[in-house]
Amino acid sequence: MSVPCVAVDRERGEAVRTRLAQADVLDGDHRIEVVGDVIYLPVTDAEAVPQALRDRVVERDPDARDRPRTPAEILGYEPSLERLGDIVILDEDDPDRAREIADAVMTSDIPCETVVNRASPIEGELRIREWDVLAGNGTETTHREYGHEFRLDVASVYFSPRLATDRHRVISRVEADETVIDMFAGVGPYAIPMASRGADVIACDLNEVAIEYLIENAARNGVADRVTAIAGDVRDLPTEYADTADRLVMNLPHSADEFLDVAVALAGDSCVIHYYDIQHEDDPFGPGIAAIREAAGDAYAVAVEAERVVRSYAPHEHNVRLDVRLTSR
Asked: Residue limits of the SAM-dependent methyltransferase TRM5/TYW2-type domain (predicted)?
């Protein structure tokens, strides 16, 4: 099977392997090959390879690596698992089955410190849920995503590792010296990588614990000087930041439409809005486009630059993203 690999001189192999691992693109399912003076490092996604190494990507057919002992091998069936740092997340209604899976996870070769099971839906303005800790003794972890680290507590903040690829696509569009406002910033999975690209980022969240983690994560990733963290209601931002944003992130899919008047107030003369929504599959983008046009009124021309289905959310419902440019008339 053809697999993208980064080809480098053997003497650079370990340094490049470390860099790819930090970017979370190293493919652990295939063996690293050495041919003469060249080492071939398999990667999971050629587009996610750091820019400086993109011209080194080639297609190879490496041998599959022997897989470690997995929970499925122990259980005899494939459980549904989600990884977040060193926490494994389950979503099981049957407590006995959840306990069985947790025991298998801890017995397996999966690097894991804690296993938790979802005990409630996401609730309230702060978008957090309750958890049953089935193994281990803590809900705090460090998650690594495309070369950045995020410290967080799953019991106190909202974070979805499932959105990593889509976040990366949005972040890759940011240019140095932009002013970005992340309206619902959480612990910083958009704000911090955008600051790493040279943007000045205002990051706001109603959850004070999330903002504390965001401040820690900005320092951890070396961008504290380019991130302004604000704990509070995003509706208050236009008082200081009206007409300033070159780019807005609106990742609040259930109710982002309620904040479009705030987004328009924050938008500069030319501003891209990354607007997340949840809609029926029959018309996943129409309601969001209509809401943005209504909020923009006569003040801005509205141009849809991209429409993307991020993931299936529920039967016949999609989590979608609209990239829309507002241009001052």
From this structure: 81-328
